[in-house]
Amino acid sequence: MEGIELKSLDELIRNNLSGDDLLEFNRIHYGRTDNRELKIKDKSLQYGNENNFEISCYDFPANKEEIRKSRVVKVGLIQNSIAIPTHKPIVEQRAAIFEKVKKIIETAGDEGVNIICLQEAWSMPFAFCTREKQPWCEFAESAIEGPSTVFLKELAAKYGMVIISPILERDDIHGDTIWNTAVVINEMGKVIGKHRKNHIPRVGDFNESTYYFEGNTGHPVFETTFGRIAINICYGRHHPLNWLMFGVNGAEIVFNPSATVAGLSEHLWAVEARNAAIANSFFTCAINRVGTESFPNEFTSGDGKPAHKEFGHFYGSSYVTAPDGSRTPGLSRIKDGLLIAQLDLNICRQIKDKWGFCMTQRLDLYANSLKEAIKHDFVPQRLPKN
Predict the structure, then answer these.
(1) Looking at the annotation, which residues are catalytic?
(2) Which DSSP string corresponds to 26-80?
(3) Which one of 52, 67, 263, 370 has the lowest number of neighbouring Cβ atoms within 10 Å?
(4) What is the mean pLDDT of residues 44-61?
């Protein structure tokens, strides 16, 4: 696939622009002429090369203030492909992904990352395209005691980092129901909560409603040692009000663990999380899985085209955006990767003071309008031509 797919849009630009032209592109596209790359340890780079994942690191400093101290936190975003073919036993597939991801988390820990987020349904192939219940439902696990949580709790405690683990959850208390869930583990290895995906797609091969429905956890913001964080899982990024509510609840960093493919959403990818950061004056971290996954049995897409075994190419390209709209270059479209960003959370308030988007958002106006709009006998506010 590497011979077919473009490696990176960012690299394509860097290879074809230089000097003032490149600086001007950076200013317009990234929001700053200097991407503020931070040095990565040589041993981390070597380890990444040996294990086929890239590493990049960028800085988002805030203006110095007289009263408040800087609130600097390092976040890490992991994008990865599956590790072995999908016809292999479930336990082997999951163990192989664990082995791959552990190496990236260990590197993040060695680089001083405080909060790390994995991609949507990170411990399994994104098999919801198949509409098959078996064997894929066997990946569902307890948010508290499941193998993914047990595996990550040890690493969280070892490296003193908060880990966000988006999994397929099995809720055995409520009828063995399945959810698309992000589990939050603190730096001491304790599960402090979870959030279930609010918006479920029904488009293309994203047949997720065959497995789980919309979540019931609202818009929680998790108070951590390193800052207030929230998780807007995948398809929720298409819904501005979803982002808004995390901001209303005080989020400073909102992670968007995703799994989306090139033929459907790539032209939207660089826009939505970035726009959310601007509109809500918080940091956003957009994470997408990478690689092409093929399944044992053919499935159709309901579009009249022939049955197929591949979902499509998950294009990676994970990136971070600051509240002022400046962003990092993305990770590769074809390769596993670790993106580290050093964030001064003081930027959030500084941008609120500068732009006033939160102050001027008129929640009262929209709350009243939406209260009316959800009524079955709602009459839209439209004026006649004459």
Answers:
(1) 120, 197, 234
(2) HHHHTSSS---B----HHHHHHHHHTTEEEEEEEEPPPP-SSSPP-EEEEEEEE-
(3) 67
(4) 98
